[in-house]
Specification:
The protein has about 120 residues and is an alpha+beta fold. It has one helix and six strands.
Length: about 120
């Protein structure tokens, strides 16, 4: 005798379809990323996030943002305030990400012109 063919429950078919769709999307995204050009060199922008008084001076927090897809390592950031100059190094700045650094100054950064910029990087 032939047994009647059993169908999988609807929830099982739905889960299998969703799983297959997600897997295909991931394969497509990974394939697309692999086909892209290596891209431009890291593009690091530095902006002041916050200025706060501390014991013995002031702290200037800056955010360094890498707008390219390329990773930068050893990013050196410089801050100048009047006659004071400070540097900070970010060990690793992945593509399309940001990191925060801080600079200590004796003078009030809100009174004198403050400049911050990225000086350079290395490739990891």
């Amino acid at each position: 005798m032939d047994e009647p063919e059993k169908k999988a429950p609807w929830i099982e078919r739905l889960a299998a379809t969703l799983g297959a769709a997600i897997a295909l999307c991931l394969i497509g995204v990974l394939g697309w990323e692999a086909m892209q050009e290596p891209g431009q060199p890291p593009t690091v922008r530095v902006a002041v996030e916050r200025i706060a008084p501390t014991e013995g001076g002031y702290i200037v927090e800056v955010r360094a943002q890498n707008r390219s897809r390329s990773t930068a390592a050893g990013v050196v950031i410089e801050a100048e305030l009047g006659g004071e100059r400070a540097e900070a190094t970010l060990d690793y700045l992945p593509g399309r990400s940001s990191r925060t650094a801080g600079f200590f100054f004796e003078q009030d950064p809100r009174r004198d012109p403050l400049s911050v910029r990225a000086l350079g990087y290395t490739t990891p």
